[in-house]
Write the structure tokens for this entry.
Amino acid sequence: MRIDFRTVGPFQENCYLVVDPTSNRAVLIDPGDDGERLVRMVRDSGATLDAIWLTHAHIDHIGGIAEVRRHFDVPVYLHPLDLPYYTQLSARAADMYGVPFEQPDGPHRELADGDILQCGGLRFTVMHVPGHAPGLVSFNGAGLSLSGDLLFAGSIGRTDLPLSDPFAMDASLDRFAALPEDTVVYPGHGPMTTIGEEKRSNPFLTGRARALKR
Ligand SMILES: [Zn+2]
Ligand SMILES: [Zn+2]
């Protein structure tokens, strides 16, 4: 497997391209902004793009979709609980922040916990891990996890946003932390890490901090 990425937009979001070298098929995770750069990343890979998979639909994860889909006619996958962000709230946030945003069409396919997705011969299991956003999912497989804004190196996604749920976040982190320790985590922001490293050093996984203040 090959992974490429670009950090895009004012929110410095990581958009990942996963390529199965055997079949030369690819999926794009969270095309958040700078669509032209993401189109070039896909073209430069030489792979055939099959789909756009979204971890969630905050503005910084969906702002590049419209441009990417002008070049690649591929379906957008999203958990239905994040539809309010996709269809309305992200556009509203763009107005609020005063940043440009092009409303994408779709989404075209619904994700659910336990779904198996394929990228060529690679298999990923969808894990629903709400909290930061109600429809947040991680894509787990091939020894790695693409997990959006669930877990960062040394931190976690915000839980003070509209539709966030700190209680659900704590449960999701517990579930996510049960993945094998050598699982490489590719987060929506910042550097990659591993489950083991975060269990040793991340205050939200060592028990020193919780998303829900009790
Ligand atoms: Zn987010
Ligand atoms: Zn984000």
